[in-house]
From TrEMBL:
The lineage of its organism: Bacteria, Pseudomonadati, Bacteroidota, Flavobacteriia, Flavobacteriales. Keywords: Cell outer membrane, Membrane, Receptor, Signal, TonB box, Transmembrane, Transmembrane beta strand, Transport. Residues 148-222 form the TonB-dependent receptor plug domain. This is TonB-dependent receptor. It comes from the Bacteria. Belongs to the TonB-dependent receptor family. It comes from Psychroserpens burtonensis. It is a multi-pass membrane protein.
Length: 771
C-alpha cells in the first residue's frame, strides 16, 4: 500500500474510532461540565482555568478514555461552543468565543511527548526540555514540598556533589555555569541556609523548564544548562491562598483578583530557626558550618570559642498582572532573598570582649514587561529588569587581633525585546534583541595590618537572535534551529552561537532526538581562599576581563532514543560537552594547585539511561549516568588530562512513588562513585609548611549512598478548604557519607585529614492549608 493509501486508511480508522467513541458516549448521561473537567484534569494531568459563569449551565457527555488530549479538547470545544486555550503544557484556559486572538494562543508547536515523567507534574517536550508543574507535582523521596532545585536533581544527568542547591552540577558543569531565571530575570543566589534549601517559593512558581542542551537562542549565558522558573502569567479571576510550615520555615502565598483586568500574587517565607531549635535545624547546622570559622575558630585554637549564633532567612515575591485590553498586557514583579548569620567569638578566659562575626547574602530582582498581540499571528514582548546580589562578611581573628571585611556585589541591568510570528499551523518564527550591563565589584579590607583591595569590572553585551520552530503536519517531526550573536563592547568581540533541537517519531513507540548548541558566558564564580566569607559561602562572582579571566565558551551535543509504550519509558541519551576558558580558581582545588592561577578547559563524555514504569497509582524508575570528566590545564600535570574535581563516573537512582486518593508515598536510593582526591606523598619535606602531593586526582573518596523516604496525606474539609500533613526522612539509615576530603599541616608539621560529611538522618514534618 502506498503512503497515500496508508494516510486514507488512517483517516477512516480515526473517523470510525471517533464515531464509535461518540456512539458509546451517547449511551451515557450528560454531566455538568465542571464534573467532566475534574475528570479530564486527572486523566491528562492538566489544569483548567475559567470563570464560574463561563461554564454555568453547561453539560456534556464524558469523552471516551481512548481519545488523546488534543482530541478530547476538540470534542469539548465542539460540544460546549467554548474556547479551550492551551497556555502551556499543563494549563488550559476556558473562555467564551469572543477573544480575537484565541486562534493565535491555541497554536502550539511544542508537543508534550512524555507525561508523568518520573512522577506526576513532570513532563518532557519534543524539544528535549523537561517541564515541572509545581501545582500538580506528585512526590519525590525525601521531599515534602516541590522544592524546585531539589526536585530537578531527580532528573538524569543532574546532581549536586555536596547535596547543596547552590552547587548543582548538570552533566559535569559547575553551578555558575547554570543560567537560573526567575520570571525571565537572572538570579545570582539560588539557596537558603547557604545551599540546603531552594530560595524560590514553589507555591507561587507555576512551572520550571530545564534545558540541558539544545537551548533556545532566546537564552544567553549558562554554558551547562538553563533553569527557567515561571510565575503564572494569566488572570485566574479566583482567589487562591495557602500557608504552611515545616521544621525549617513557615510560608504563605495568595493570588488575589483586584478586578476583571488585574491580579496580584504575593508569597513570603521565613525560617523559624532563630525561634525554635529542631532536629532538622541541628542537622543543617552541622552540615553547613562543619568546615567554617564558626565551627573551627582560628584553625585549631582551642582558647577561642564561638557562641550566641543567630541565623535566619526569608524571601518575599510579588507579581502584578494587568490586562489593559484584550491585546495589551502589563506585568510587574519583584523578589528579595536574604540569608543572615551572626555569632560571637571570645577568648576562653573571658579576657576579651566578645566580637560579633556576621555574614549576609541578599539577591534582589525586579522587572517590567509589556506584551502586545498585534493580530492572530504576531505578538511582541518588551521586558526591562534589574537584579542585584550582595555577599558581605565581617570576620574577627582574635588570636591575631585582626578584623576583615569582605564584600562581593553584582548589579545586572537588562532589556529584552522579542517578536513571535506564526507563519502557519506548522511554522513559528522568533526574533529579538537583548542588552545587559553587568557590574561586579570585590572589596576586602583588614585593620592589622591595614590593607585595602577593590576591584570593579563592567561588561555590556548586545545580542540579536533569530529562530524557527517547525512541526510536521503529522506531528511526527519537530525541529528548532536558531542563531544568536553576542557583541561584547569592552572587548569589541562577536560571538556567534548556533543552536539546534530535532525530534522525530519513528512510530508510535520510538522517538529519536538530537540536540546541539554553542554558548558563552562572561560571569563566573571563584574561590580565592577556602576561609573567605567565614568559610561558609566562599565563592564570589567575577567578570571576564579577557586576560587572566577569559570568556567561558562551550560546545555540546547529545543524541538519544526514547521508547514509550503502555506506560513504560526506556530512554538512553549520549552526550559530549567541551567547556574552555575556565580558571583554576573557579574549580575549588584543595591540593597542589590551590594557590596557582591557570586557564584551562574540561571535557565530558557520558550516557544517561532511564527506565520508568507507571501503573495506575504506582511509578518506579531506575536511572544510571556514566560520565568521564577531565581537565586540561597547560601548566598542571604537564598538560596531561586528569579527572575533574566533580568527576562522578557512575550515578544510580532507584525510586518508587505511590499516589492514590489522598495519600502520596515515596522511597528512593541514591548511589554514586566518590569524587576524585589527591593524596599527600608518604615522604614529606619537613623544611616547609606546604604539603607535597601525589598525582592530581588520582584517587577517590568512598562511594556515596543515601536512602530517603517521604509521605503526605491530604485532608479535604470543604470545596474550598483542604490541608495536607507530611513527614520525611533524609538519609534514612544515617549513613556517614564523605563528600570531600582535604589535607592540612598542623603546627607540629603533621598532616591531618579533614573529611566533610553529608547530612545525617534528617527528619522533617509539614502542615499546609489551602483555601
Amino acid at each position: 500500500m502506498n503512503k497515500k493509501g496508508v494516510f486514507y486508511l488512517f483517516i477512516i480508522l480515526l473517523f470510525l474510532n471517533l464515531n464509535s467513541s461518540n456512539a458509546q458516549s451517547n449511551l451515557k448521561t450528560k454531566l455538568p461540565l465542571a464534573e467532566v473537567l475534574t475528570i479530564i484534569e486527572s486523566r491528562f494531568s492538566i489544569h483548567f482555568t475559567y470563570l464560574d459563569q463561563t461554564i454555568a449551565n453547561k453539560s456534556v457527555l464524558l469523552p471516551s478514555e481512548t481519545l488523546s488530549r488534543e482530541n478530547t479538547l476538540e470534542y469539548l470545544r465542539y460540544e460546549t461552543n467554548l474556547d479551550f486555550i492551551i497556555i502551556n503544557n499543563t494549563s488550559v484556559v476556558i473562555s467564551k468565543r469572543s477573544n480575537p486572538f484565541s486562534d493565535f494562543i491555541t497554536q502550539k508547536l511544542e508537543e508534550v511527548v512524555i507525561t508523568n515523567y518520573l512522577t506526576k507534574g513532570i513532563s518532557k517536550n519534543s524539544d528535549g526540555k523537561i517541564n515541572i508543574n509545581t501545582e500538580y507535582f506528585g512526590i519525590l523521596p525525601g521531599l515534602l514540598e516541590p522544592d524546585i532545585l531539589q526536585s530537578i536533581q531527580a532528573l538524569p544527568g543532574v546532581m549536586s556533589v555536596d547535596e547543596r542547591v547552590s552547587n548543582i552540577n548538570v552533566r559535569g558543569g559547575t553551578h555558575d555555569q547554570n543560567l537560573i531565571l526567575w520570571d525571565g530575570i537572572k538570579m545570582y543566589q539560588s539557596g537558603h541556609f547557604f545551599g540546603l534549601v531552594s530560595a524560590f517559593n514553589p507555591y507561587l512558581t507555576k512551572e520550571v523548564n530545564v534545558s540541558k542542551n539544545g537551548t533556545s537562542v532566546k537564552f544567553g549565558d549558562g554554558v551547562s544548562s538553563v533553569i527557567d522558573m515561571q510565575l503564572s502569567n494569566s488572570l485566574d479571576q479566583n482567589f487562591k491562598a495557602g500557608a504552611g510550615f515545616n521544621l525549617i520555615n513557615a510560608d504563605g502565598f495568595a493570588k488575589v483578583p483586584l478586578n476583571e483586568q488585574a491580579e496580584i500574587q504575593v508569597s513570603a517565607r521565613r525560617s523559624i530557626t532563630d525561634f525554635i531549635f529542631t532536629p532538622t535545624y541541628d542537622q543543617y547546622l552541622q552540615r553547613v558550618f562543619q568546615d567554617s570559622d564558626f565551627s573551627n575558630p582560628q584553625q585549631e585554637n582551642s582558647e577561642i570559642i564561638s557562641n550566641n549564633e543567630r541565623f535566619y532567612f526569608y524571601d518575599i515575591a510579588t507579581k502584578f498582572l494587568y490586562d489593559i485590553t484584550d491585546q495589551d498586557q502589563f506585568r510587574f514583579n519583584f523578589l528579595t532573598i536574604n540569608n543572615r548569620l551572626s555569632y560571637d567569638q571570645q577568648a576562653n578566659d573571658d579576657s576579651v570582649i566578645p566580637l560579633k562575626n556576621e555574614l549576609e547574602q541578599n539577591n534582589f530582582a525586579t522587572g517590567f514587561e509589556y506584551l502586545k498581540y498585534w493580530n492572530s499571528k504576531l505578538t511582541t514582548t518588551a521586558k526591562f529588569y534589574y537584579t542585584s546580589y550582595d555577599l558581605k562578611a565581617t570576620n574577627f581573628n582574635i588570636a591575631n587581633d585582626q578584623r576583615t571585611n569582605q564584600d562581593n556585589k553584582v548589579n545586572d541591568l537588562g532589556l529584552k525585546m522579542n517578536a513571535t510570528n506564526h507563519i502557519d499551523d506548522n511554522l513559528k518564527i522568533h526574533g529579538g534583541y537583548q542588552f545587559s550591563e553587568v557590574i561586579i565589584s570585590n572589596a576586602e579590607n583588614t585593620n592589622n595590618p591595614t590593607t585595602e583591595q577593590f576591584i570593579k569590572e563592567v561588561v555590556r553585551t548586545h545580542s540579536i537572535y533569530g529562530e524557527a520552530e517547525f512541526t510536521s503536519a503529522n506531528k511526527n517531526t519537530y525541529a528548532r534551529i536558531g542563531l544568536r550573536t553576542n557583541f561584547i563592547e569592552k572587548f569589541s568581540e562577536f560571538f556567534t552561537e548556533p543552536r539546534l533541537s530535532v525530534s522525530h517519531k519513528l512510530n508510535n513507540d520510538f522517538r529519536l532526538e538530537f540536540l546541539a548548541e554553542l554558548k558563552s558566558q562572561t560571569t563566573s564564580q571563584i574561590i580565592d581562599l577556602q576561609n573567605d566569607f567565614l568559610g561558609i559561602e566562599k565563592r564570589r562572582w567575577i567578570l571576564s576581563n579577557n586576560e587572566n579571566i577569559p570568556i567561558i565558551k562551550s560546545v555540546q551535543a547529545a543524541a538519544g532514543i526514547h521508547y514509550n509504550k503502555n506506560k513504560l519509558l526506556v530512554s538512553i541519551e549520549a552526550f559530549i560537552k567541551d567547556v574552555e576558558g575556565i580558571t583554576s580558581q573557579s574549580q575549588g582545588f584543595q591540593n597542589q594547585f590551590q594557590f596557582i592561577e591557570d586557564i584551562g578547559k574540561f571535557q565530558v563524555r557520558g550516557i544517561d539511561f532511564l527506565i520508568n514504569k507507571q501503573f495506575d497509582y504506582f511509578s518506579t524508575w531506575l536511572s544510571y549516568s556514566y560520565s568521564k570528566n577531565d581537565y586540561i590545564f597547560d601548566n598542571f600535570n604537564d598538560g596531561n588530562p586528569f579527572p575533574n574535581n566533580i568527576d562522578v563516573r557512575h550515578a544510580v537512582t532507584f525510586a518508587s512513588t505511590y499516589d492514590f486518593d489522598n495519600l502520596k508515598f515515596a522511597l528512593g536510593f541514591n548511589w554514586h562513585s566518590g569524587r576524585p582526591q589527591t593524596l599527600p606523598l608518604e615522604l614529606q619535606n619537613q623544611s616547609n609548611s606546604q604539603i607535597d602531593y601525589d598525582t592530581p586526582n588520582s584517587n577517590r573518596i568512598s562511594a556515596y549512598f543515601r536512602t530517603d523516604i517521604s509521605a503526605t496525606y491530604q485532608l479535604k474539609f470543604t470545596n474550598k478548604l483542604d490541608a495536607s500533613i507530611g513527614a520525611s526522612l533524609w538519609n534514612l539509615f544515617d549513613r556517614e557519607n564523605v563528600i570531600n576530603t582535604y589535607y592540612a599541616k598542623n603546627s607540629d608539621g603533621d598532616i591531618i585529614t579533614v573529611d566533610n560529611l553529608s547530612l545525617g538522618i534528617t527528619p522533617n514534618i509539614s502542615f499546609r492549608l489551602r483555601f
